[in-house]
Write a structure and sequence with these properties.
The protein has 14 helices and 22 strands. By secondary structure, the chain is of the alpha+beta class. The model has no long low-confidence stretch (mean pLDDT about 90).
Length: about 500
């Protein structure tokens, strides 16, 4: 199902100026445009808007209100060029990105939202990255571009649930339909202020009065009419495409075409001395609806057969509709790739080298997701839950080792579970514990091992822990701890199990 992100950049012109050596954020900044013989505000930064300076206000009047106002001549060409660079940056979120000038970008996230965890996390990550670059942005996700556009600009952004486009747009002003301001003024004179009012009008009179373009924009905003977008593919990006005289739709045909596309693409990368790290497959159906798939590799490669296999299982999720008329394979992320000699004097060089696990990592990542493929590396710490960290499966050895002669259970509970314990002597090992409603009599105990807070890791006020290795009458060998002395109300916790 199609899911579109509309990114709205309300102060794009001033944000661009400020990012390239403009005044600091606490000083008002506006851009000036010439309208006839008058110079007026074209774009105002958030600080200027707080002072009551908005687009359309004469520059002379604005400077009279705010003497320290910074005024820069508007440069639409530079704004658009910067917007295109921003759209190219946004390809990191999805292979289907398009310009929405002068102040927006489209991103089709169908099939890629799970790579970020959810649509909410994707939107949070996107806006966080833009804010970190000094860009004021709002964004909305919806089923249709028109719905997302209206929500980003007139609802403050957010996520419109699947199938709720009509409800989300009905209460918005008619200006949310992307129609000329003159038409909006005419509607308002007739008492039509909201999209829902326009949608409730009889279709034929509405078209005769306002035109077919308004009816089309209304259908696009409500999600009733498909609106294609033109994906941005940088000219220098390696890509391969196939257009078909007769649409195709069978899985085996799609897999065969992907293999041919991967072979053509790898041929281009050979000439460039590059290897691919991320591949985007874009499919266009005969009804102009599209779909996209994205796969990544653990390291740069040019083996087309391996790259094609990464798409095999994912292609089963594609709905071909009435057929697919074009397929495009894009190398959206590449790295320099040096040739390696694999055979010399009849001896296979792979026999003297480490086993290459990159293919296995790529296949597993394509099947279960890259976030679930990792390996664990030791961390120099005594706090049990911090003794390992996740790293890339192909990352080089970190050089870290665990402290020696520290008995640790092979399995830890995260988080530790509360235990009811009875100790015969205060601040001694317990003689009896109740865990998960089961009573255990302690027949042997070793300890304590005190682990103090690590102030350098932010545990300034954390309590010390006294760990004990205990053996029970049921044969269990547990690792428990008390988080404070008995006099201070310390509680017991189960943290792990020994074999």
């Amino acid at each position: 199902m199609r899911r579109m992100v509309s990114v709205y950049l309300p102060t794009w012109s001033t944000d661009r100026v400020r990012r390239h050596g403009g005044p600091p954020p606490d000083e008002p900044l506006v851009t000036a445009v010439s309208i006839g013989s008058a110079r007026r505000i074209g774009c105002a930064c958030p600080k200027a808007l707080e002072l009551g300076l908005g687009p359309g206000l004469p520059i002379a009047q604005a400077q009279a209100r705010v003497p320290n106002l910074h005024v820069v001549d508007a440069t639409p060409e530079e704004d658009r060029a910067a917007l295109e660079r921003l759209a190219r940056w946004a390809i990191a979120f999805s292979p289907v990105v398009a310009l929405d000038p002068p102040d927006g970008v489209w991103i089709d996230i169908a099939g890629v939202a799970h790579l970020f965890g959810s649509e909410e996390k994707l939107l949070e990550h996107l806006l966080g990255r833009l804010s970190g670059q000094g860009i004021n942005a709002k964004a909305a996700i919806a089923d249709a571009p028109g719905t997302a556009w209206a929500a980003a600009r007139f609802r403050g952004g957010g996520i419109i649930p699947v199938g709720r486009s009509v409800e989300a747009v009905a209460t918005l002003p008619v200006a949310a339909l992307r129609i000329p301001s003159q038409t909006v003024a005419t509607m308002q004179k007739l008492g039509v202020d909201r999209v829902g009012q326009l949608a409730a009008m009889p279709r034929a009179p509405m078209v005769r009065r306002f035109g077919k373009d308004v009816a089309l924009r209304l259908d696009q905003a409500l999600g009733h009419a498909f609106e294609p977008i033109n994906p941005l593919i940088p000219h220098e990006t390696a890509m391969a495409s196939r257009a078909f005289a007769e649409p195709i739709g069978r899985l085996e045909h799609l897999q065969q075409v992907v293999r041919h596309l991967a072979e053509d693409l790898c041929g281009q990368l050979v000439k460039r001395g590059q290897g691919v790290r991320r591949l985007d497959l874009i499919l266009r159906r005969v009804d102009q609806k599209g779909a996209s798939l994205r796969v990544g590799t653990a390291k740069a490669t040019r083996e087309y057969a391996h790259l094609a296999k990464l798409f095999d299982e994912r292609l089963e999720t594609i709905d071909p509709g009435f057929g697919i008329e074009e397929m495009v394979l894009v190398a959206s992320k590449v790295e320099p790739f040096a040739e390696a000699q694999v055979e010399a004097r009849g001896i296979d060089a792979a026999e003297t080298q480490d086993v290459d696990l990159s293919r296995l990592v790529d296949r597993l990542s394509a099947k279960v997701g890259s976030a679930r493929v990792y390996r664990l590396a030791p961390v120099q710490t005594l706090v049990p839950e911090r003794m390992v960290k996740r790293i890339s499966p192909l990352a080089p050895p970190t050089g870290e080792v665990w402290p020696e002669n520290l008995p640790r259970p092979p399995r830890l509970l995260d988080p530790p579970e509360h235990v009811v314990a009875t100790a015969l002597v205060p601040d001694h090992p317990p003689a009896l514990i109740v865990w998960r409603k089961v009573r255990h009599k302690v027949i042997h105990a070793d300890g304590p091992e005190r682990i103090a807070p690590e102030w350098w890791a932010g545990d300034k006020d954390g309590p010390s822990r006294d760990y004990y290795r205990i053996e029970t009458d049921r044969g269990g060998r547990f690792w428990i701890f008390r988080d404070a002395p008995m006099a201070e109300g310390g509680r017991w916790w189960m943290h792990g199990f020994f074999g």
